[in-house]
Amino acid sequence: MESLRELSRNHVLGNPIRLAIVLYLLPREKALFKELLEVLEVTPGNLDSHLKTLEKAGYVKIYKVIADRPRTAVKITEKGAEETGRYLGALKRILSEL
User: Fold this and answer.
1) Which of 3, 13, 58, 63 has the most CB within a 10 Å radius?
2) Which of 46, 56, 58 is CA-nearest to residue 20?
3) What is the pLDDT of residue 93?
């Protein structure tokens, strides 16, 4: 039961798109906005909204990269990696109890 409570308390990662974003970023550490759009197949506005929620929670950092033109990049933070690990651990405990 405690694992279920733990999952329900994390409203940020409880959303499938936000969970997919951090799961994509975990092994890579960072990605371009356009890359996330292609992988997740969401609209730019939808992705922007989810990224802002993750940034407000301290799970990701959004910044500009200047190459041939300015691009938006997203990097998972230490807090984001830790919270994702906790969330996945709770999910794993629940699944093992089924």
Assistant:
1) 13
2) 46
3) 86
